[in-house]
Amino acid sequence: MLDYPKIQLKTELTLIGIEYLINNQNLNMNPISGKILTLSIILKNLLAKQEIRKSSIYFFPCYKLRYKKPMKISRESKIIEQQNQSHVSRTSSTNSKINKRYLILSYKTDFEKVHYPLALNYEEHIENSRLMTKIQNLKTELLDHKSQKQNDSEILVSSSFSISKRDIQTFDSLVNQNELLKPKVKKLEETLTQKKGAVEVDQLIRDNEDLQNLLNTSKLLYEEKIQKLEQQIDLKSTEIVMQINQINVFKKELSSLIGQVETDNQIKKHIKLMNEDEESKLVKAQKTIQKYEKELESLNQQIDSLKKQDAVKKRRINQLETELSQSMKRYSYKGVTDRLYSPYSNYSNASRKSNHSVPNRANSNNSPGNASPNVRQTSPNLSKNSRSSVQYSVSIDSILVFTSETSILQHFSNEQIAILEETLSSQNTTIDQAQSQQDISNNLKEAISWQKQYVQIGFSSRIKQLTAKGSLIIVDQIKGKLICQSLQVAYQVGKPI
Fold first, then answer.
1. What's the CA angle centered on 213, arms 210 and 214, to 5 degrees?
2. Is the pLDDT assigned to residue 249 strictly greater than 70?
């Protein structure tokens, strides 16, 4: 459509008309009636502003953007729309689908009138700036089309000029041939004039005609050959262009492949470095695990040794208890053991009384076995049996004190062993804190060594107290037995035995 100059001019005029309509929307309205002016009035105004005579130019009439008439909405539907806003939105969406916009281009020829409706996107509210940008885009397209057409015409002119050059070259060659033939013709004419024979002249004329025919046929043949050669040259040139394009494509593919290979090499190097780092980390982790396993083995050995010591101590305590029970059976008599008093025993009946308290001697004559443990013999006429019974009661009381103390020591030792086992089990679960647990175990060992010294000091003070009461023999028998049980308890008790 745009190939014809008249149509190009008409399209330019339509664009000018659209710009006029956009820029002068308010002027197209009649201020009195409020109606849009007719097309003839708009055209007159446009021609007057452009200073164009109607008769001097073939004007291409432009119609404003037209709409299809939307569907008529009844009064009942309007009432329903006022009540329900959702229904309004639905109807508006349907109307927007139905409504369309067309730009109708019409032009006249001598015998017909043609209309070109151009469909446009429907918009309820159009911005003038957007329409102006569209018009400018159309103008740019027209200019591009014109420039392309001019270039095509120039190319055609140049090609025709080249063809004419070729024709000129062939013509020059023919002229040269004619110039070469002219002297021959003159010679023949001279010979003919000398002979003056009409028959020979006719033959020469025929020969000349034959030669001209040969020249014409040769020209045609050469022209056909030249055309074929030109076609071959064009084909080869197109093939060369295609090959060049293929070479460029291959170059791009090679460059992309080279880049991929480089990236792959970089990725491989990075992976190697990561593997080396991970291997070094694994080696370090294995070394640390071996260290922690050795420490755990040492701690387990310590636990086993402590358990063995505990078992030995328990056996020794059982032996002591059996010996104490046997000694109690030997030295016990009716009603004496129940009334014995010991200031060191927490389990005696009169532990709350002072050392100088006087016992209640009611009913002592009737039952000799009901005497109190704090009775002091004031009369000088005591029998030998009563003195020996008092000595035996003191020794038995001291033995009971030791049994109670050994039970207390056993209780505390068991608790402390349980605490140690709990700490070591926590060390098994937390390998990362094994070093700190080892420090704690070293501190415990130091505390135990300190306990030994403290217990020995306390036990020696206890021996001094017992020797004052005449029970040194029994203490010597169980001295070595009780030291082992009191090693780990003295630190918790905090005072001598």
1. 90
2. yes
